[in-house]
Amino acid sequence: MYFNAEIETMPRDELRKLQLERLKQTLGYAYTKVAFHQHQFQQANVTPDSLHTLEDLNKFPFITKPQLRENYPFGLFAVKPNDKDKIVRLHASSGTKGKPTVVGYTAHDIEVWAESCARAIACAGGKPGDVLHVAYGYGLFTGGLGLHYGGEKLGACVIPASGGNTPRQILLMQDFQAQGLCCTPSYALNLAEYLKEHNIPLESLNLKYGILGAEPWTEEIRVKVEEGLGLIALDIYGLSEITGPGVSMECPYKQGLHIWEDYYLPEIINPATLEPLPDGEIGELVFTTLAKEAIPMIRYRTGDLCNLTYEKCDCGRTHARMGKIKGRIDDMLIVRGINVFPSEIERVLLEFEELAPHYQIVLERPEVLDVVTVHCESTTAFTVSVFGDAEHDEEHHLLSSLRQHIMLKLREGLGVSLQVKINPPHTIPRSEGKAVRVVDNRPK
């Protein structure tokens, strides 16, 4: 199903003309309205008139998240919050690594965001009249409100459940018979786990599709979510700096995430050289907004690693598709000279039926060298089969054998040895939002 078929299936030559027109407007707008961009352009010896083709965007400078924080709170705004009737909403990141990232929206920006999310929900299979259960967090985090507005724009009945209180979430889904579920993949796993442990039949739910995002996740997680919740699990991507969730969305053909290119112009660059990469190669994802008033973003480096493809999808959509996020540049671990992403560790762990799909990677430095330990947990069924109902303090030989097998598979898959600790069931912290996969306990 399409929400805006004319745009979503637009021939690429027409789409590129529209992009070029909007890009020229965006560059001129940013140059005249934001002193930061004007200074950046002058430093790079370019002006909006330097753009003649889409490829000319390569001449323009990037913007990074540290620069957003340096200009906290409103230094990058083209429309100031005290401008009467202009800024209608502010969102912000948690600011766990310094000052928060503040983003603002005009009424026009909210409309663009709602349209993006409406397209995303329709892309997943949603339709007017559906009941949409939104279990993303509401508040300064953009997840909940983005899908909420998109659902209403599509014509769905939205349940603003927000995060937490899993028993109530299940009750609401049973009583309201929601077709769509919006949450993080890690929380979808928690919901599936709750159903299984409390012997709640899938038939009591009416879920058809899950719109899961806000964190990277693997195909192995997809299988577990689909089996555990009885739905088709699809990836949604977005980031507050660009607009929020809904920048791109996977369709049921699962051939990548459709980027709404009339609003968000993507690039893939080599993060080391900053040079553009050919189609299909994995690199850092960069976005330029094409319809944003409050904070126009010019070549924003997301830090996310993926690839792009431009072939028409089997669903009929013509916009570029991004592959699932491989990881983030700042989440990459360097273990004895080897680059390791949490998603690669997850892929190995989920090969083992004896393990629950919950883990944490703990970094420590007891002496000179860093020590990386993968903390995972055994399933209840495996634990009972080994120990029965007895409490256990010492490692059983079957548990030891499993641990050695996991370490071997990690070494074969990653090219580096990691420590592994298998914990009893329900000892890894569960997430009601984004899962905390890496815990850095090294001295600061």
Automatic annotation (TrEMBL):
<dbReference type="InterPro" id="IPR011880">
    <property type="entry name" value="PA_CoA_ligase"/>
</dbReference>
<keyword id="KW-0547">Nucleotide-binding</keyword>
<comment type="pathway">
    <text>Aromatic compound metabolism; phenylacetate degradation.</text>
</comment>
<keyword id="KW-0436">Ligase</keyword>
<dbReference type="InterPro" id="IPR051414">
    <property type="entry name" value="Adenylate-forming_Reductase"/>
</dbReference>
<dbReference type="GO" id="GO:0000166">
    <property type="term" value="F:nucleotide binding"/>
</dbReference>
<feature type="domain" description="AMP-dependent ligase C-terminal">
    <location>
        <begin position="337"/>
        <end position="442"/>
    </location>
</feature>
<dbReference type="GO" id="GO:0010124">
    <property type="term" value="P:phenylacetate catabolic process"/>
</dbReference>
<dbReference type="InterPro" id="IPR042099">
    <property type="entry name" value="ANL_N_sf"/>
</dbReference>
<dbReference type="InterPro" id="IPR028154">
    <property type="entry name" value="AMP-dep_Lig_C"/>
</dbReference>
<keyword id="KW-0597">Phosphoprotein</keyword>
<comment type="similarity">
    <text>Belongs to the phenylacetyl-CoA ligase family.</text>
</comment>
<feature type="domain" description="AMP-dependent synthetase/ligase">
    <location>
        <begin position="20"/>
        <end position="287"/>
    </location>
</feature>
<comment type="function">
    <text>Catalyzes the activation of phenylacetic acid (PA) to phenylacetyl-CoA (PA-CoA).</text>
</comment>
<protein>
    <recommendedName>
        <fullName>Phenylacetate-coenzyme A ligase</fullName>
        <ecNumber>6.2.1.30</ecNumber>
    </recommendedName>
</protein>
<dbReference type="GO" id="GO:0047475">
    <property type="term" value="F:phenylacetate-CoA ligase activity"/>
</dbReference>
<dbReference type="InterPro" id="IPR045851">
    <property type="entry name" value="AMP-bd_C_sf"/>
</dbReference>
<dbReference type="InterPro" id="IPR000873">
    <property type="entry name" value="AMP-dep_synth/lig_dom"/>
</dbReference>
<comment type="subunit">
    <text>Monomer.</text>
</comment>
<dbReference type="Pfam" id="PF14535">
    <property type="entry name" value="AMP-binding_C_2"/>
</dbReference>
<keyword id="KW-0596">Phosphopantetheine</keyword>
<dbReference type="Pfam" id="PF00501">
    <property type="entry name" value="AMP-binding"/>
</dbReference>
